[in-house]
Amino acid sequence: MSVSDPSSSGAADVPQRPGVRAVVRLARRRGPARAAPLLTLRAARAGVLRMRRAVEQVVNGSSHSLFLRALVAQPARVGAICASSPQLAARMAAWVDPDAPGLVVELGGGTGVITAALLARGVAPQRLVVIEQSPVLARHLAQRFPQVRVVQGDAAELALLQRAPDWPRGDDGAPRPVHCIVSGLPLLSIPPQLRQRILQAGAQTLAPGGRLLQFTYALRGPSPWQVTGLSGCARERVLANLPPARIDVLQRPHLG
Ligand SMILES: C[S@@+](CC[C@H](N)C(=O)[O-])C[C@H]1O[C@@H](n2cnc3c(N)ncnc32)[C@H](O)[C@@H]1O
Predict the structure, then answer these.
(1) Which residues contact 92 (CB under 8 A, 6 or more apart)?
(2) How does residue 30 score in pLDDT terms, banded at 50, 70 and 90?
(3) Does the CA dihedral 186-192-196-198 come out positive or negative?
């Protein structure tokens, strides 16, 4: 019989847990009838505390609430009311060749829905680099995907980030080329000047013949990436997302 045993009404063989000892002493001095309400009160208080801690953990630690907090802090930068659906993420990943050489760079990793889909697609974690500007989200990504290189930084600085010492390097010591860019950046809500720098940096970093994927909620019109010289080769609508989205598939021309 223990305190948590509902069939128990006495306090004589209650285990000596901290906080319970005082009640046991009271029961011995004044009798179990006087101690029982106190026990019930303590158990109820402990229950409330446990529940509050559990709720706090969910609210502060879940991917969804992290996303909402990032959205409230920087609405234009986050640019969506919730993370992409697993369906959209899987369709983005389906355009990535997991066996192609070089790196896959994800821009705007958020809470990691697309990162997870890329890994599920078979992209080796050592070939994946995720750029995320929000420190909170970048920390979350690094914890969620310890084998993936997560860089807290601005996609507009991609060309610089590629030259940083911690960028994955080949046997010759040179930065590994980027053969695929997967962008979840909210290009349409990013201010035009910054958007222009992001577009230039991405197009410049992508290796010749490399592929770029961008999802957008604008279901019509050209991709903003086309102004950089990338050519559109396919597009796909994904209705199973809030809001429905379009995936643009672009390619950097081969050299020569
Ligand atoms: C629409 S959310 C998409 C998140 C995730 N990829 C998904 O599909 O759920 C856009 C993300 O891009 C990040 N972001 C916005 N501007 C950025 C920039 N200049 N550089 C890096 N990340 C950026 C935001 O912090 C946010 O996490």
Answers:
(1) 84, 114, 117, 182, 184, 213, 215, 247
(2) low
(3) negative
Residue 102 burial (CB count, 10 A): 17
Q: Which residue has the tokens 């821009």?
A: 107
> How many of the other CB atoms lie within 10 Å of CB of 171?
6
C-alpha–C-alpha distance, residues 239 and 168, integer Å: 36
The pLDDT, as a whole number, for residue 41 is: 81
- Residue 54 is encoded by which pair of tokens? 């559990």
Which residue carries 């995936």 as its tokens? Answer: 247
Interval 87-145: pLDDT, tens:
999 999 999 999 999 999 999 999 999 999 999 999 999 999 999 999 999 999 999 99
What is this structure's pTM? 0.78
Most informative mutation of 65, 78, 188, 194 for ligand 1 (most atoms within 8 A of CB):
78
Grouping H, G, I as helix, E, B as strand and the rest as coil, residue 222 is coil
Q: Is the CB of 162 under 6 A from ligand 1?
A: no
Residue 219 DSSP code: -
* Residue 244 CB neighbour total at 10 angstroms: 13
Closest ligand 1 atom, residue 156 Cα: 19
